[in-house]
Amino acid sequence: MDKSSSQRLPPLKRNWWLKHRFFKLYMLREATVLPLLFFTLCLLAGMVALLQGAESWQGWIAFMGFPTVLVLNLLALAASLFHAATFFVLFPRVMPLRIAGHSLPDKAIVAGQWAGVVAVALLFFWLFGRA
Amino acid sequence: MEKLAMNKPSMGKNSTQHKQAFDEPLWWGLFSAGGVCFAVLLPAVILFIAVLLPLGLLPAEALSYERVSSLLFSVPGFLFVGAVVCLPLFHAAHRLRHGMFDISVGNDALNKKLMYGSAALLSTVALGLVVAGMLG
């Protein structure tokens, strides 16, 4: 089966996705994990620093303040929000919710997930935002 | 269409053999779980830990060495690392593997081992650091 299909379809060139806006957005979404990976590695370094003691922890905070690191992490923040925007619209398509026989509108499901993002941010503010 | 094709055995000597991709549901499951964590948890985590903290916009004691140690090196801290580091790592591994396939980089059988292997390794390190902190 795959033999005949690969005979029928010529292999794609590497730049196939540059030819249409939809595919460019798809690739951008795939690329959101690159700044995420950077942030994750920063976080792992922070955990190592925390194990080493108070001085290392302060050093790690200073490292996180370097302009390059800060810009890459701001990029990670933007990437997480872009990923969220693309990911949340998938939920009602993959798992449509029905309550008492009425299907929940897609917009309500998407809004509910954004409410989750806000709730987590508020939790963080409650934990770390006050003196 | 493309994604379906990538898990099929390559044409040639085994073209008639249909190998069941028994592990794929696991990778897609981890991808979804990691995607939810990336979308719901990571914006706040990145904002507070990687932006507000280094800019000095949080109260001085909020993320002091003592407070972070006691928060992180605990059972909730272990779960936090699982949701904020481990699951998003598998999400990233999956996206990278499929992205590399899309732009014909490397070969998928090897990429798969490299990506999921790295995610598993880094996850183990992250959880191990929390356990080390709890014991230490």
TrEMBL record, chain A:
Listed transmembrane segments: 69-91, 111-129
A Pfam family that the UniProt record links to this protein: Fumarate_red_C
UniProt key word Lyase: no
A cellular component annotation (GO) from this entry: membrane
Record key words, sorted: Cell membrane, Membrane, Transmembrane, Transmembrane helix
Full protein name: Fumarate reductase subunit C
Classification of source organism: Bacteria, Pseudomonadati, Pseudomonadota, Gammaproteobacteria, Oceanospirillales
TrEMBL record, chain B:
UniProt cross-references to Gene3D superfamilies, sorted A to Z: Fumarate reductase/succinate dehydrogenase, transmembrane subunit (1.20.1300.10)
UniProt cross-references to InterPro entries, sorted A to Z: Fumarate_red_D, SQR/QFR_C/D
Keyword annotations from UniProtKB, A to Z: Cell membrane, Membrane, Transmembrane, Transmembrane helix
Membrane-spanning residues: 26-53, 73-93, 114-135
Pfam families with a match to the protein in the record: Fumarate_red_D (PF02313)
Entry-linked SUPFAM superfamilies: Fumarate reductase respiratory complex transmembrane subunits
GO CC entries: membrane
GO annotation (BP), single: fumarate metabolic process
Name recorded for this polypeptide: Fumarate reductase subunit D
Organism of derivation: Vreelandella sedimenti
